[in-house]
């Protein structure tokens, strides 16, 4: 968040119900929270975002802390709403991914190149191979730039558990993408002949 030194005044005004203050908080938080919700498969990310801000409004009188703590708190609420969204979706019958893929293929023109949405879908498919906790940790750490401590608060795990999740997620992605640590050959690379 980039409100900076004005944060205490903005927060105080928001607590008093000032529309301009909530507008500023929304402009700063909403894009990142919405990306977080969408990347984690919320059935209706915009609806979840609305629920997050509704809870922020209701619970603001209980909040104490600085701008970083507020941002962490907002993402913690977002994760709770995301889990609620997953639970609601599990109770509804859905379409299989094969049905969705087949329908999308029928609409795709011949010879079309990958669009940004297709690229996002490819990234989502790769991330889908991770556990929900691993995916959450990677997105919070690398996309939203949260510290280990803040990420641990958001996902309700210890800092050590977050480090382990991050390590395992990165290892899994390297395996999936076929890349290794610098200096190590890729699994498909030919072995050098002994001299």
From TrEMBL:
GO terms for biological process: DNA-templated transcription initiation. Keywords: Sigma factor, Transcription, Transcription regulation. Residues 25-92 form the RNA polymerase sigma-70 region domain. Gene3D superfamilies: 1.10.1740.10, Winged helix-like DNA-binding domain superfamily/Winged helix DNA-binding domain. Residues 122-173 form the RNA polymerase sigma factor 70 region 4 type domain. GO terms for molecular function: DNA binding; sigma factor activity. Residues 88-98 have a biased composition (Basic and acidic residues). InterPro entries: RNA_pol_sigma-70-like, RNA_pol_sigma-70_dom, RNA_pol_sigma70_r2, RNA_pol_sigma70_r4_t2, RNA_pol_sigma_r2, RNA_pol_sigma_r3/r4-like, WH-like_DNA-bd_sf. Residues 88-119, 176-195 are annotated as: Disordered. Belongs to the sigma-70 factor family. ECF subfamily. NCBIfam families: sigma70-ECF. This is RNA polymerase sigma-70 factor (ECF subfamily).
């Amino acid at each position: 968040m980039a409100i900076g030194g004005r944060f205490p005044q903005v927060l105080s005004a928001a607590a008093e119900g000032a529309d301009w203050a909530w507008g500023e908080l929304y402009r700063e938080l909403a894009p990142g929270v919405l990306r977080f919700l969408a990347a984690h498969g919320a059935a209706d990310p915009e609806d979840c975002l609305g629920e997050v801000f509704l809870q922020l409004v209701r619970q603001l009188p209980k909040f104490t802390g600085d701008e970083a703590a507020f941002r962490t708190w907002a993402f913690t609420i977002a994760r709770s709403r995301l889990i609620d969204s997953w639970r609601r979706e599990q109770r509804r019958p859905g379409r299989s991914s094969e049905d969705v893929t087949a329908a999308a293929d029928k609409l795709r023109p011949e010879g079309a190149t990958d669009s940004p949405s297709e690229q996002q879908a490819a990234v989502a498919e790769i991330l889908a191979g991770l556990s929900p906790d691993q995916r959450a940790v990677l997105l919070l750490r690398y996309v939203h730039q949260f510290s280990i401590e803040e990420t641990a608060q958001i996902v309700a795990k210890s800092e050590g558990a977050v480090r382990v999740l991050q390590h395992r997620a990165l290892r899994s992605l390297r395996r999936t993408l076929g890349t290794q640590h610098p200096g190590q050959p890729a699994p498909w690379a030919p072995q050098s002949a002994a001299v």
